[in-house]
Amino acid sequence: MKNMIEVNHIHISLGKKKVLNDLTFHVKEQEIFGFLGPSGAGKTTTIKILTGQLLAGEGDFFVDASKDEIGILSDNTGAYERLTVYRNVLFFAELANVPKKAVSDVLKKVKLWEDKDKKVKNLSKGMKQRLYLACAIVHKPKLLFLDEPTAALDPATTEEIHELLRELQKSGTTIFLTTHNMEEADELCDRVAFLNKGKIVELGKPAELKLKYAKDIVKVSFKNGKEVEVSKDAKQLMQVLKENSSLGLRAIHSEEANLAQIFLSLTGRELK
User: Fold this and answer.
1) Between the CA of residue 247 and those of 28, 250, 252, what are the distances in Å?
2) Helices (DSSP H) in 33-154: which residue ranges?
3) How far apart are CA 190 and CA 167, in angstroms?
4) At 193, which helix (H) or strand (E)?
């Protein structure tokens, strides 16, 4: 599978601050790629470079999509508050030279068709976020950039957006997702990159990373409520079971690291 994005040794400073430091990675076609890190790590700056909004100081990159084939949903995405939902999406459809039918199709997809005649100023935050997404995908982009798409949304709305992103991926769209929500990344992404102070400190498939950084212990629970953490070494485990055989075994659980714990162990920083 070919690469949709290739980034090679990009450096950029804003004033005296080093925002991106030797940034190198690639994104495969039809992949959901998670670009993860706390606020100020350089995620939004990277999107601005890849979408032509900002020039890199050093290094080079390649994006296998024209401007007309790209969709963007960022934290400063907005809409015309006094216009209806339908008119907002129609505006973006006309800019992209796609037929009107695309407007009704995408509004049905984001579950806003019944609200198409409502003015944007009267929408809830979750409905606005779905509207912004509709505007970003009405032209069926080849490449979609999403900057914190579910920040501050309720769980139900978040899950609806996740389902839509999976549908877009199946239809051929490559998705570049920035987020500090590690659970979201674990659920959605094929691969993730951990960004800290402008530098990638780890990159890989979520399942492989969790296995790589898994705690080398298991937790043994007994029926009386007692819990013992022990090395995965078979001899030590058998010794604990033997010593507590009278208590009755309830369960043995392996201690798997999650993405947030991995990031913390690599950087000493929590994702806030």
Assistant:
1) 52, 9, 14
2) 43-50, 85-95, 101-109, 125-137
3) 14
4) strand 191-196
Which pLDDT belongs to residue 78? 85
Query: Of 146, 183, 193, whose CA–CA distance to 168 is shortest?
Result: 146
Q: Is the CB of residue 27 less than 8 Å from the CB of residue 61?
A: no
**What amino acid occupies position 154?**
D
Left if phi > 0, otherwise alpha if psi is -120 to 50, otherwise beta: which for 83?
beta
The CA–CA distances, whole Å, from 259 to 19, 207, 214 equal 23, 9, 10
- Quick check: pTM over 0.70? yes
Residue-wise pLDDT for 30-40, tens only, equals 999 999 988 88
Q: Which of 45-54, 56-65, 84-93, 209-218 ranks highest by mean pLDDT?
A: 84-93
Averaged pLDDT for residues 219-224: 85
